[in-house]
Amino acid sequence: MSVTVYAPASMGNVGVGFDLLGAALAPVDGSLLGDRVTVAAAPSGLSLTLAGPWANRLPEAQADNIVYQCAQFFLEAQGQPDSGLSLVLEKNLPVGSGLGSSASSVVAVLYALNEYFGRPYDPQGLLALMGEFEGRISGAVHYDNVAPCFLGGMQLMLDLPGRICETIPCFDNWYWVVAYPGISLSTARMRALMPDVYDRKVCIDFGRHLSAFVHACYRQDETLALAVLKDVLAEPYRASAIPGYLKARDGLATLGMLTTGISGSGPTLFSVAADLETAERAKTWLEQHYLLEPGGFVHVCRLDSLGTRVVE
């Protein structure tokens, strides 16, 4: 028996919702932007094989890989630490990209193991486990990548007992253009750029913008949603640390994009268009002006409503 699982890329924060909002991404060309993990029976022990275009960015020792560590923890929790399992991680997301790379790996392997062992965890229990492991990487538990990666769509974090998050509606006509320039930025480093204490007005603006955005999503008030889709907590401190971001934001506005922000902690940016033609123009512009290193890419996306799933 074997199980192969795909876990999509995700945008943490979605600009307006620092640590509280996240969305899963699906390229409109039908390609899968996310990691895959295959779990299969093996004669004895636990082994991990790496594949995919970004495998060379991962630790060489399998014991240092978060996928291997997730599997160890899962097997111990199931009382089967000596189970023979073969894991294959197809690493399709760059590390330190702002696209939920570590979350994609964590979600994929835990989902696959849960399927392989007959679903011992319900969705909320499995999500809590995913958040715990993602927290080992970032230094604290944040669900804004793992939740949308797992469940799909746009997720608002509640962090209540038995209700970690809730799906909120978005705008079906929006195209999300995401551009990864080819460089990596440490999440820890980007968090360190932010102040420990914020002015009261900034805190009020954050709450006002996020609550108004959620309200606008439910009312399907696109004008209101765009007016408040602003990042007052992180972007003012991170923007200058992302090469080319400020220039790109201005250039995309000139092209007619509705709003632009930082995906997660960067360097990937997202930009919203109301039609495919404008989104494709933005894609071409970003390919010419934002990509810095080999491996950089731009995708025109919708939100991925399916989340993590078993694939062939």
Automatic annotation (TrEMBL):
GO terms assigned for molecular function: ATP binding; homoserine kinase activity
Any one of the GO CC terms: cytoplasm
Entries under PROSITE patterns matching the protein: GHMP_KINASES_ATP
Chemical reaction(s) catalysed: L-homoserine + ATP = O-phospho-L-homoserine + ADP + H(+)
Biological processes per GO annotation: threonine biosynthetic process
Occurrences of domain GHMP kinase C-terminal (ranges): 234-284
Predominant subcellular localization, coarse grouping: cytoplasm
Residues bound to ATP: 94-104
Keyword Secreted assigned: no
UniProt keyword terms in alphabetical order: Amino-acid biosynthesis, ATP-binding, Cytoplasm, Kinase, Nucleotide-binding, Threonine biosynthesis, Transferase
Subcellular compartments: Cytoplasm
EC number(s) reported in the record: 2.7.1.39
Biological role: Catalyzes the ATP-dependent phosphorylation of L-homoserine to L-homoserine phosphate.
HAMAP family: Homoser_kinase (MF_00384)
Family per similarity comment: Belongs to the GHMP kinase family. Homoserine kinase subfamily.
Protein name stated in the entry: Homoserine kinase
Lineage: Bacteria, Pseudomonadati, Pseudomonadota, Gammaproteobacteria, Alteromonadales
Gene (name only): thrB
